[in-house]
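Chapter summary example.
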Amino acid sequence: MDGGALYSIGELARRTGLSVKTIRFYSDRGIVTPADRTAAGYRRYGPEAIARLALVRTLRELGLGLDAIRRVTDQEVTLGEVAVEHAAALDVQIRVLRLRRAVLMTAATREPTVEEMEHMHRLATLSEAQRRRFVDDFLDAVFDDRVGRTAYAAARRSMTPELPDSPSEEQVAAWVELAELSLDPGFRAGVRSLVDDHAAELADATAAPPRPDIVAVTRELVEAAVASGIGPGSPQADPVVARLTAACARAVGRPDDTELHGWLVHRLEAANDPRRQRYFDLLAVINGWPAPEPLAPVIDWSVEALSVRTAR
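The structure predicted for these 312 residues follows.
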């Protein structure tokens, strides 16, 4: 056939791979229109219908709706413009699907009740503003005005989850678990107690400059000994323990004596809550930070080393 030939619906179907029913459907909705009709009323289509139907088929396979396709074929918008619109819509759908899958995968590992499942879904689908209020509620309970917000601004930032606009399923699952953890009254009270202890250390310190956190001091001085395999009760541990107690005594402005050693054991045991480590593990996943080094080995070593020497 030459360029001016007309095609029946059956011929279009053979050339495009679409069914007669589909082509008639598109024709009835004005997406592809007949160029002529026979005396008996049968539709005939021009050569441009083949290219038009090929475009329609491609756009349908990409998920575009008929209204969007009609806008393209009627040249109300360019193909590029509708592609941008559809890609943005797909981004939203992908985000929703990731949220749903993350909740389902989390539920698969827990065997939750219906109520727990609903709760996880609500946490996963909070808006950015709602997540911000949720996090602020937790951090306000931990760092309230009794210890001064300005002094703990950096600590608040270091504990603030920032779920990205397009989170991975792992990040969503981590957010749900972290949100549930932050609602745990026991966890809140434990973190609050650590903040209060640190605030008391700052208030009791005799020197003016800000003092480091005792747990941070312990990690810095003991980590190498743990990594080297030095036993907490061995003679090789003596200088490590001596440096630790001296540094902590300076940090809190107290004598390096048996009373301080007992206080230090209590302080470290209070900090050795596995929920605290889990919070920071989840926080790293959400924020895309490197995974933190586990704190428990350092604290366990220090507590045992101090206890052994206190009992001598």
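To summarize the output: The chain has a mean pLDDT of 86.
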